[in-house]
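Notes to self after the Tuesday call (sharing in case useful).
The group wants a holo model before anyone commits to mutagenesis around the pocket. I volunteered. Ligand is uridine-5'-diphosphate. Logging inputs and output together so the record is complete.
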Amino acid sequence: MKIAFVLGTRPEIIKLFPVIREHIRRDIPFAIIHTNQHYSPEMDAVFFQQLHLPPADYNLEVGSGTHGEQIGRMYPRLESVLSKLKPEVVYVEGDTNSVLAGALMASRLGIPVAHVEAGLRSYDRRMPEEFNRIFADHLSEYLLAPTEKAKQILLGEGFPESKIYLTGNTVVDALNEVSRLGDKQKTVELRWGVGKRSYILVTLHRPENVDYNTVLRPIIEAIDELSTKFALPALFPVHPRTAKRLHEFGISLPESFVRLEALDYLSFVQLEKEARLVITDSGGVQEEACILGVPCVTVRLKTERPETVEVGANLVTGIEKEAIVAGAEKMIDKRTGWPNPFGDGKAGERIVDIVMERQTGGRSLP
Ligand code: UD1
Ligand code: UDP
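Result:
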């Protein structure tokens, strides 16, 4: 039995980590195929190091580009590696260009695709991720739905029940690992000079927000207004896409902001845990804030993580300045203690049980 993982970006490394770890634990042979969609050390290598993942077996060196350029470069390189490797299952996670290319080539070669985090929908077709995740679901044999809602979405779209498995979200497993690995001595006060619950944590990287000067500026202004009003600095680890745009648009961050490089996982989760409020447009950060009990404001029109809103952990404000400020004022003193809708932290184990059981027809592994 040989398994392949196709991954390419920061969140895929984090969320596939629990599944890869389970293969290591069970001694199941596997290969990691890294598209290198993300390649800067702070978006890539640091996560392999911190999570003690083995280095990728294949590096497709695809780098940055448009959707067409990235998929175009990934596709023949995946064809060559997968044809040689002949894995029995290919895992992909989420909704990036790497996921679409991986699912497309594997299924073209007749290799079953296991899609971790299947069934999410934002119903916003402007988002490249919506397109990618819908196609990935259609190409997959194993639809590994993180929540009951995701499962119901898939059933509602006519996917056969026999392909859908409710697993929980692997991000809970990853967060549990961070609690084990984190250095308890280094408080946020010592590292960043901010007290517990006395800062806002900000992340922004969605193209529909940061690629437009007219959208990005008012978002920054809204955060500045909030930060000033509540006397809470806005700690902002900047994604490379956003760094490029801030530079291009000549936007200098107001004094209320503390600009940081994109952070390693342990540092970022530590900041998430102790923030007073998270303001984000990230998918994974919405989930993590909810799991960690920190109120979140999502500066987007729609979310594919409605569970976070339903439990009261998250508010989707849209992208207008006044709406962001009003939404954040509502959330900032929100009482926490909502239930975690993303599962019990055993998604990695469950996923490997499901795939191995079906692939081996219930027989034990050679
Ligand atoms: C990608 C995914 C998005 C995911 C995000 C996670 C798609 C369509 N988008 O968006 O779904 O939420 O990753 O962070 O697949 N860059 C660097 N170094 C890197 C990577 C990128 O400097 O290691 C810069 C480049 O200027 C690049 C830009 O960031 O052009 C955007 O990178 P790209 O991978 O195209 O998209 P992301 O915005 O990272
Ligand atoms: N993250 C990180 N460092 C940062 C910002 C985010 O380690 O500076 C982690 C975060 O904890 C989450 C994941 O990256 O697990 C989310 O990735 P991102 O926001 O890039 O993508 P998305 O989830 O929106 O696809």
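Two things stood out.
The chain has two domains: 3-169+343-359, 187-331.
The mean pLDDT is 96.
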